[in-house]
Amino acid sequence: xxxxxxxxxxxxxxxRHSRTPDLTLAGTLNVxxxxxxxxxxxxxxxxxxxxxxxxxxxxxxxxxTRDGADETTPVVTTDTVATETVAPDTSTAVALVAGIxxxxxxxxxxxxxxxxxxxxxxxxxxxxRYTDDALxxxxxxxxxxxxxxxxxxxxxxxxxxxxKALRIALAAGLQNRLWEVVGLFYENQGTENSGxxxxxxxxxxxxxxPGLDAAKVKVDAKSPAVTKQIAATQAEATAxxxxxxxxxxxxxxxxxxxxxxxxxxxxxxxxPALDGAxxx
Length: 280
Prior knowledge:
The chain is α+β, with helices and mostly antiparallel strands. It has two domains: 19-67; 92-278, 3-Layer(aba) Sandwich (Glutaredoxin). 44% of the residues lie in helices and 12% in strands. It has ten helices and eight strands. The chain has helices spanning 37-69, 92-96, 125-133, 135-143, 160-173, 178-187, 199-207, 214-220, 224-239, 267-278; strands spanning 22-25, 29-32, 102-103, 106-107, 114-120, 148-154, 247-252, 258-260. The strands form two sheets. Strands 3-4-6-5-7-8 form a six-stranded mixed sheet, with helices on both faces. A two-stranded antiparallel ribbon has the order 1-2. Helix 5 packs antiparallel against helix 6 (178-187) and helix 5 crosses helix 8 (214-220). The termini are far apart. The model is unreliable at 1-44 and 59-88 (pLDDT under 50).
């Protein structure tokens, strides 16, 4: 294609979205065509109308925003359970076991033949992972239908915070509220032996459990009955050769429980052992 003459300059063009016709002067300047007076009046009227509409909208938005700021807006958190009629601040741990029979350390229907024993330490991060990732599905699939009972066994080998939390949980178990407290301690688990099991945390946890006599729990936590229960669990763990936490056993009827190694700690790793036990 031939090149343009050297003395010709490239023309400027109005943007494609522009509706203003243009004339090119000396190849560079864009000038607007004169607008008729009647047309100018019409444009002015339209501009005024648009300005009035915008002002009305801004006033309305300002009023609605101010009015809404005076109202309390509910905050939706991961701790709110939508499937049950519970208070907005009910924790997942409390809602998970709501309506399931409890007796002492056992969660599940009385008389269920198959039981899952779980040895744990409240400071064990892997125990928390199991509680978060696997336990909810096991409860929904096996405990709620009345197929399996889960029996909590608390150990204290990691340090003072372990025992302080365990005593509170076992004392709550005397009121058949252990499982809510277990879940709440894991929800609030802190750094190992950092002193995270404070009196303030205990008060908050006990306050989240419906129907629990918190004052009685604090008294019972120091009782000989709870001390004896801790010692009995330690003796049982030694007899069963528990080597760490979490550690799991399955029991069927009156037969001695046998160890299982569900890895990774996901629901699918537990199903073969539990389904096999249910078949006898």
